[in-house]
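Box 3.1 — From sequence to structure: DgyrCDS9840
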Amino acid sequence: MSRYEDCISSDSDSDSYVSGDEEQSEATGGAGVLTLEDDEDTTLIQQNEQVLVQAMDVYGEEHEEETINETTNEKEEITEETTEDDDKPKKKKKKKKKFLYICLTSCKYDSVRRVSRRVGFKEVGEDEDWNLYWTDQSVALERVMEMKRYQKINHFPGMAEICRKDLLARNLNRMIKLFPKEYNVFPKSWCLPADYGDLQAYSRAKRHKTYILKPESGCQGKGIWVTKNTKEIKAHEHMLCQIYVSKPFLIDGFKFDLRIYVLVTSCDPFRIFVFKDGLARFATQKYLDPTHANVDNVFMHLTNYAINKNSKDFIRDDEAGSKRRITTINKWFVKNGYDIDQIWRDVDDVIIKTLVSAYGVLKHNYRTCFPNHFKSSACFEILGFDVMFDKKLRPYVLEVNHSPSFHTDAKLDKEIKEALLHDTMVLINVGAIDKKKVMEEERKKVKERLLHKGSKKATREQMDAAISSHLEQLEKFEDAHLGNFRRIYPMRGSEKYDKFFQTSGSLYQETAAFKARSEAARIQREEIKRKQEKLDSILKKKTSGRDPSELRPESPGGGARPKLLTKRLSNPGTKPVRRFTNGTVQRAENKVISNNEVLVETVPIDSSIPGAIVDDEELERISGLMQRDNLVRGLGVVEHVYRLLHATPGTSGGHYHSQNKNHSSQPRLHSVSFQKFFF
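Predicted structure (token representation):
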């Protein structure tokens, strides 16, 4: 029997979780249970002690608490012992049992409470010291950052990356751009309104397609509708639009999907398990290809249980009804000659790839919130994957639910969901971390900080060796407590997913669009840098050999030039002047620096007073004007301005383009006027 075919018979194993007292005995794995009554026969106690010794040999002292906690009560055992000095019997109290505590303040499901009591948890309030916190909502970073190392919570921070429909589509769209063949695991999707233009362009190119619209976040089929006309979709609506799988795989003529329960016990590294049983949810009317007439028939095109349970055609039958076990579907596949092993290999592949698309965010958030959790994962999560097959039996993930319903309004739901909860609470091994040991380590660290004693930090090799040893012990525990789960990652051959992990990790920091923008910005910066270097080299050549104090200030009057070296004026008899802001002018004595240079001291100039014109400065000014004139004419600015102002009031039109014989004289007049216009 293959590892997939054994799912077929697992439905009978789940019945044991419904029957009163028998449930509690099976929850303890069939081992002996300590009772409230004293028993002269110590065989039962010895068996438990042997179990503890074996557990300590394999898992250490931390496993002792878990084994003890499988019972619900313990009575003090009074033993008599005599001493050499006194023959009176002494009362010796046996070590009190340590309970595991669960907080269910934010949980509305009675099934979770029943199973937690069966496993051996004691319910406490939110303000009390708990080992396991179970909530129906996603968790905030503030809550998980306050957790202690011996505590666990049933959600990962950041799992919304695949549990929100819009974020799931964005993550998978990124991956499919990089791996178009490997990541064909979900229908083509658009996140509206951001992708509205792409959707309309696609609908024009691919006519006769059917689309399904879903809210960005939601459950139970609320707000879902189907259309064949994208013009009915409003541009401003925040929705997820997907290509409708118009050729689904049918059983007995009905469309269906699978609710597959996936347990993630660790995100760095991933440890992923699939529950062997689950739910197959059927539409209540036989499927027909979507047309404009039937797209509004939700009982034909939607498989959500919350919708179809209201249909008059809903059938309650485990073998042929509107809701069946996955094991029943497996039997149908085998009976009709389908390769059940290949079907579930493909489903496992879709689940792993979907989770890998969020690996970067999950890892970052987890390491941010739990920097010191290396030996045991502080989080776990039960995810509800909704998977549908096309007519070629290729699986597609439709959505992922971070809090699948644990309501047990039918016997079928009770058997499957309570078995799922029981095996989950056993597999996560809440008692693996010793609370007392953790508290002692924390006190020791605080004491060392207060006394400024630096403890020796473990080397990288020591850390890797410790983590490797822990993973080996963890795998042994998982193999012994899988229950009705099967591990899909890591497994033999999981190396093929390594390339997806590397890419997904980089996507958290660099999306494809971000990388493109960064590359364009880098090229632009390099171009600007080259231009700046070229300009600096030109300016350096012009200013080489000149004193930096000769440079003019950027703003007029922004600062006086205390000393300026200029060439001798054209009239050597003219003395340089000292100008004052009050309008007075005073001649200054020339201090000869060389045969051709004099030193002139100046102060801020009053432009209302005429001053002597320096020949070199005037030549430089005229040269700049000529360069500007040539530039303006070379760019065609003069002709463009003429066309704009041609024949408008206040201008003389008709001369510039009408000259024939007077070609040399007319443009000259216009050029002068335009030069005055610009300068």
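Summary of the box: The longest strand covers residues 254-267.
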